[in-house]
Amino acid sequence: MSKTVVVALGGNAIQQADEEPTYINQLNNIKKSCKFLSLLVKQGYRLVITHGNGPQVGRLLQQNEEAQNVVPPFPLDVLNAQTQGFIGYMIEQSLLNELKQNHLTVSVVSMMTRVQVSSEDEDYLDPSKPVGTFYTEEEAKQLQVSNRWKMKKDANRGWRRVVPSPKPLRILGADTIRELSENGNIVIAGGGGGIPVICKSTDADVGIEAVIDKDRSGCKLAEEIEADVFMVLTDIDHVYVNYGKADEKALENLTVDELEKYIEEGHFSKGSMGPKVEAALSFAKTGGTSIICALDKAEEALQGQTGTIVNPVEKQVTVS
Ligand SMILES: Nc1ncnc2c1ncn2[C@@H]1O[C@H](COP(=O)(O)OP(=O)(O)O)[C@@H](O)[C@H]1O
Ligand SMILES: NC(=O)OP(=O)(O)O
Domain named Aspartate/glutamate/uridylate kinase: which ranges (predicted)? Predict the structure, then answer.
């Protein structure tokens, strides 16, 4: 039977840092990304695609706030749903067009996905999820006062607004996602990390104003649908130790224990590679294979030829 791969598309697959965030620029990036995804479909992998929404949901939030005297604003959980809708549409249509050009007949389904979170998560008190545009330190300090935004430094890339990011506890509708995938559909699910909701057995489910990290929820999704591979596609060929230093070293094929040691040694930045390696580690611990690699090398990485591959301790073999 063909392997199920949960693919988490990084922000760069949708928007390049140095480009204007217009619809056309984002669509062109998605079209390029879909060319690489279609190669995986051609190889016979079953794809479940998830994607980020940090830049997009941050700008949508800003639009809602800035227009609030003219148009009533919507809460952040609804804005997450909006990003699932429009990014899902852009991926679905671009992928279908690419598959059609390659004479591949596979249906693509975008699924609005809610994700259960805790009402007690500590991130509500000290928000960590960067969204929207990058600012200089000076601009960030002004926005903190004028707009009452919480601002934090995002690795070495500038300052960004931060919003709460609770950990995903359960992907609601995971059974349906699995069924759709097993029936031969490409499924786009858990976009933007999913819509965060609090579920209590005695009360109605209720949405929460937060943005979940898509690498964390992608890993949870892979775990819950029992995927074979969890793959994080970004803009860098490997995960590195001593990244950016003279003695940096690309990580190729490693065990859970080795990766755990590198995480403890503090090699990975909180706002960029950190969540990816933690998600990769977490999935490998459940018995699957995790891969972090460049989007344009996805096919080779699945054949074990490139990328950072994290194997479960007992499974030191490459994926094919
Ligand atoms: N240890 C590391 N190894 C590799 N890349 C790293 C490391 N630490 C930080 N990075 C940075 O992480 C970036 C990828 O993270 P990010 O930009 O958040 O990805 P995406 O937007 O694709 O999800 C790389 O371009 C690289 O600059
Ligand atoms: N929700 C989320 O993690 O989005 P980004 O990957 O775009 O930050």
Answer: 3-293
